[in-house]
Known about the structure:
Layout: H1 13-21, H2 41-57, E1 75-78, E2 82-86, E3 91-99, E4 106-113, E5 123-124, E6 128-132, E7 138-145, E8 155-165, E9 169-170, E10 175-181, H3 187-191, H4 198-210, E11 214-217, E12 221-225, E13 230-238, E14 245-253, E15 266-271, E16 277-283, E17 294-301, E18 308-309, E19 314-320, E20 331-334, E21 338-342, E22 347-355, E23 362-370, E24 383-388, E25 392-400, E26 410-418, E27 425-426, E28 431-437
Parallel strand pairs: 1-9, 2-10, 11-18, 12-19, 20-27, 21-28
Antiparallel strand pairs: 1-3, 3-7, 4-6, 4-8, 5-7, 8-10, 11-13, 12-25, 13-16, 14-15, 14-17, 17-19, 20-22, 22-25, 23-24, 23-26, 26-28
Amino acid sequence: xxxxxxxxxxxxxxxxxxxxxxxxxxxxxxxxxxxxxxxxxxxxxxxxxxxxxxxxxxxxxxxxxxxxxxxxxxxxxxxxxxxxxxxxxxxxxxxxxxxxxxxxxxxxxxxxxxxxxxxxxxxxxxxxxxxxxxxxxxxxxxxxxxxxxxxxxxxxxxxxxxxxxxxxxxxxxxxxxxxxxxxxxxxxxxxxxxxxxxxxxxxxxxxxxxxxxxxxxxxxxxxxxxxxxxxxxxxxxxxxxxxxxxxxxxxxxxxxxxxxxxxxxxxxxxxxxxxxxxxxxxxxxxxxxxxxxxxxxxxxxxxxxxxxxxxxxxxxxxxxxxxxxxxxxxxxxxxxxxxxxxxxxxxxxxxxxxxxxxxxxxxxxxxxxxxxxxxxxxxxxxxxxxxxxxxxxxxxxxxxxxxxxxxxxxxxxxxxxxxxxxxxxxxxxxxxxxxxxx
Length: 438
């Protein structure tokens, strides 16, 4: 849906988009929002009810909003599924919020990939990791925008959040589209791509799904015991493998310290024509101290040959302290028991974790089934096998969502994982639910 009377780039454009994505405003049947119209008491009551339901859905207790109530680590999400910036503006600041609780230190990775814009000519990639301190509820990152003199029309960049750590989960939206408005294009073409509607959200999902020719890590997280000595990290080239290309990799301190817990590593992976994957090694340091698990940040940057950075391009390696944990084949579980999305989101990314050890390669089957949602009408039935290589501790699969014209307040899709191999077991939760909101 696109509000025909909301002007792209206006001072209220992003606010309207956020409230629409949250389901608090719906607009009028003729496809307009009516920014200059008065709001009746009846309309106000309906919007307040939707706001209350949104807060309850984020875990806010209905009986008390006291800051003394521990609501947990919460979830992180973009403030809207669509951002917009003119190309003659030097940068845009993107907000990520933590809702439903802000207890504990947590982090989430962010990345830019795909779309019709190109890293370098149109923007400068700015992937990385956002660290939220205890009690902190918002973070931002900045994307540098590059102006040119070409009349090439509006271009898009896909934004994504991944790899939540510290007990925090991914909220919705965890993907978004940034539209870079061409200042050489005519005003009519510029205004035809308003950023405040579900059509932007849908295009984000479809573009992300169709995105090709990108670099990404083989997993969303890695884990190794400090006694392992080293861990091999795989980087994949997705899409076409024609032509020689390269990408840089680097480690940086999380809670682990280079020289004490691991050996800093950085360099360039060169892919010859036909190469689909390359690896690099991170050396680990064993000690006798009881100091808990440590983390190391891994990032990709500066891809060449027209290849983009895909997702994930920033992940975390956890070094397990062998003095306090037993490290074996591990067990599998969903990263969370419930996932939420609107039907306009296009898809839901579901994460599966391997905990308690990542020794050896292991496979795991996943599948969807009908709850109150119906395959073929509300979502696309999905099943398959996730393969975890040694050291890989987090993988993902996507469930495509379908938009219909029926008024269904919410529907559920059931998720299951089963049949782990190579001595791995099933942990909890091994079942989960996707709730699809209208």
